[in-house]
Amino acid sequence: MTAPLLQVRGLTVDYATPQGATRAVDGVSFDLGAGEVMGLAGESGSGKSTLAFAIARLHRPPAHVTGGQVTLAGTNVLALGPKDLRQWRWREVSVVLQSAMNALNPVLRVSDQFRDMFRTHGITNRAEVAERSAGLLRLVGISPDRLCDHPHQFSGGMRQRLVIALALALKPKLVIMDEPTTALDVVVQREILEQVADLRRRLGFSVLFITHDLALISQFCDRVGVMLQGRLVELTTPAAIAAGEGKGGANHPYTRSLWNSIPPLHPAEPVRAQPDLVMP
Ligand SMILES: Nc1ncnc2c1ncn2[C@@H]1O[C@H](COP(=O)(O)OP(=O)(O)OP(=O)(O)O)[C@@H](O)[C@H]1O
Description:
By secondary structure, this protein is an alpha/beta fold.
């Protein structure tokens, strides 16, 4: 059996606060296979973003990794020095956050943002940069004519597509998406997630998709992790959650309550309703 792309073992992250250390991620372990899409659900404050940032080595004080191991494609991620880290990010892992405007520089043209990112990774030939930038825009369904525009000239959905194009520029093995479509309306959200699923099939990267929305995860992910108070309390498949089957029996009660909070598609469909909510 080939080793998984990402191995997370006993990862523990604390925040240093004036009152002492607060544990945000508590001994989390899981594997992610090459080309696999794993969703991470859980309520606000359960530690999803802290976990994602630690895996991508984007965490900053007061967050501190106080235990565990992260291995991506054989690299001991937590041991990378600053120089190696700069090369490792974007090439091996990239992160797409909720707000595209935080990732895009508002005063730079889109072409300049691509150029800067390529330059950081030693790709400076102007013709190559122009060609690759145009190709990346096409990849996410935006006309390359728009390369000379500034971020504010795009809609929210298009800006998030631009960030996804940047994230895929160096063909990373892992793309971490932290609430990538939360700020967008549901139609645009669906279009973008379908595009990510299509790109993943074509390009073969793995995705760690973080959201509080278990319904979205069940549509787009191969596996689901559920976090509660810093711990990964469930790791299963969307089908197993739908069937009420967890590891060694039923799902964790918290998973069930998350699942039961998804409104049924048709009002007459009582399947996911809690027994006491089913009309007699
Ligand atoms: N800078 C900080 N200092 C202290 N504690 C923090 C800090 N940032 C986050 N925390 C705490 O760490 C825990 C995990 O937060 P985190 O943002 O990772 O959760 P989350 O599941 O991603 O939440 P959300 O869905 O709201 O983004 C929470 O208890 C939060 O209050």
